[in-house]
Amino acid sequence: MKKFLSLILVLTLILGLTACTEKTPEEKPSDKTPGEITIDINAVKNTIIEKTELADPLELGAEQLCELYDIDVNDIAEAVCVTTLDGTFPDEVIIIKAASNEAKSRITEKLSAHLDDVKVQSQNYDAENYALAQECKIIEKGNFIALFISAKHAQMEKILEESVN
After folding, report:
1. pLDDT class for 19, splitting at 50, 70, 90?
2. Closest among 90, 86, 157, 153 to 122, alpha carbons compared
3. Residue 104 · residue 140 · CB < 8 Å
4. What is the Cα–Cα distance from 11 to 3, expressed in whole angstroms?
């Protein structure tokens, strides 16, 4: 009986000590520079696909992204690219984290050239799509560059804006 009571007393003390200790989250070193913007680009991509109801989104890997937009793979730290293949104005969702400021400039230049090509093509094809293409723009947030070519670009831009930390 004494052993049983001793065991109960020990367990009570352990539980009491555990309940009284303050737990602090483990601090881990961060790669983030003070004031640096962070964006979970995969979460943004998934939210865009869900909320804008993109039809049959096709996700492109980094290699395909680089080939399609003539971007150097070494300029990319992280990227997502989704496109649709239906309609006369297919949706394109591109979000890239540049590896450096110089890389950001090069990526922005390549995406701007692509957007210009889309505008020229749509101008020759359809006035309504040309008007939509004119509204689309390159968005820069820290080392992140985004391009949304879509009739739903404003909604996509808002989703991106809401995700910036």
Report:
1. very low
2. 90
3. yes
4. 12
pTM, two decimal places = 0.77
Region at 93 (left for phi over 0; alpha for psi -120 to 50; beta for the rest)? beta
Round to whole Å and give the CA distance between 111 and 102. 15
Which tokens in the block code for residue 161? 């804006």
Nearest to 96 by CA among 86, 111, 117, 85: 111
| Residue 35 phi, psi dihedral angles, 5° rounding | 85, -5
The tens digit of pLDDT for each residue in 114-160 reads 999 988 888 877 788 888 889 999 999 999 999 999 989 999 999 99
Per DSSP, helices labelled H in the chain are 2-20, 41-52, 62-69, 101-125, 127-135, 153-163
Going by C-alpha positions, the residue among 153, 41, 33 that lies closest to residue 95 is 41
Q: Do strands 76-83 and 92-98 pair parallel, antiparallel, or not at all (unpaired)?
A: antiparallel
Place of tokens 């239906």: 86
